Automatic annotation (TrEMBL):
Pfam family, one: ABC_tran
Protein name, per record: ABC transporter ATP-binding protein
GO MF annotation terms: ATP binding; ATP hydrolysis activity; L-isoleucine transmembrane transporter activity; L-phenylalanine transmembrane transporter activity; L-valine transmembrane transporter activity
Keyword Cytoplasm (UniProt): no
Nucleotide-binding listed as a keyword: yes
Amino acid sequence: MLAEQQPLLRTKGLTRRFGGLVAVSDLDLEIRPREILGLIGPNGAGKSTTFNLISGFYKPSAGELFVFGENCTGRSPLAISRLGLVRTFQHGSLMRSMTVGDNILLGTIYGVRGSAQRRARVAETAEMLGLTAYLAEEAGNLPHGLQRLVSIGIAFAARPKLLCLDEPLTGLNQTEVANTLAVLERIRDEFGCSVLLVEHNMKAVMRVCDRIVVLHHGQHLATGTPSEIRADQKVIEAYLGHRHEH
């Protein structure tokens, strides 16, 4: 198999137990080069646990994790991020009292050598996210939608091969959602970066994702294109009663 065709990330039988509760059970998942993959499911489906497993924040109870072809089962979050997998956190990861520029600069610490190169990387990242006008502003003073973009900017400043976003659209209005989705498409199209999107906003997921993985009660329920997932009877049944949330 050619390197380009190998999945960037693959899990085999990934399982995580908390005491008697099996939060994720026997999950096989793969993320391919240059794709936006959505991870969805009703509340309590195991999305956050899966996200924490693949970024190294939880160690699996069973199963294996391969990142860029390397067996990363049980490796630390830092070791995994240095390979090129960077994640955001649900409630943002920005430093509120620092400027937008200094926040994005934090993201360049491991990936970029030399202060001139770092400044150039900050400028390029800000331009792509539409944040150039806000570089000198304190991040905590920005509207919520722009703070969300700053969090993505910090993660993307390292130019990862795989960017994992934990509910980046929460609390955004329709215009901000559309802007953020356009940013994700640019990240994929212009930088060849794959994106894993854990998200509740079903409309947005259907609009931007190349493929979607559906979890239910910690287990894999379905994988497919947005149109395949929309028509999947198992998925429709899992979401009945959850419709009002979306």
